[in-house]
Amino acid sequence: MSENFEPKIIGFMCKWCTYAAADLAGVSRLQYPSNIVPIRLMCSGGLEPSYVIKALKEGADGVFIGGCHFGDCHYQTGNYHTNKRFAILQKLLEEMGIDKRRVRLEWISAAEGIKFARTIKEFVEEIKKLGPNPLKKEA
Fold first, then answer.
1. CA-to-CA distance for 88 and 24, rounded, in angstroms?
2. Exposed/middle/buried for residue 118 (C-beta within 10 Å: 0-12, 13-18, 19+)
3. How many CA atoms, within 13 angstroms, populate the side-chain half-sphere of residue 88?
């Protein structure tokens, strides 16, 4: 593995919480890696597992999913749906032979810019340790 490996991470984030936390981190001038490509969702509950698998198949080294804390979802139960789908997604990844650590789910509120920046730093470091996505070679 090249020491210059910089992972590409796709970030599916709830507009109301995690995406807002990313915005807060930016306006607060908090430093975090630019490896993440943010995709704003109205609710994390709208994220289909197939989107995550497609991102990995098309060459993303990791996928970050961010949503509201339980009880804070603007759509009341969206994050509960996300949690259920994430459990299913983890089983699918295992069956496909994809390391489950390549996909991370976090609950980050709009006021948690520091947590967002810290989480992205940790996730980028973890993906760097895992190395490039082996599916990239097949794509």
1. 31
2. middle
3. 12
Token duo for residue 62:
């990791």
pTM of the model: 0.94
User: What is the pLDDT, as a whole number, of residue 14?
Assistant: 97
What confidence tens digit (pLDDT) does each residue in 21-34 have?
Answer: 999 999 999 999 99
Q: Domain segments of the chain: what residues?
A: 9-133
Mean pLDDT of 73-96: 96
Cα dist from 22 to 18, 48, 54, 127, 136, whole Å: 6, 22, 24, 19, 27
Domain spanning 9-133, CATH architecture: 3-Layer(aba) Sandwich (3.40)
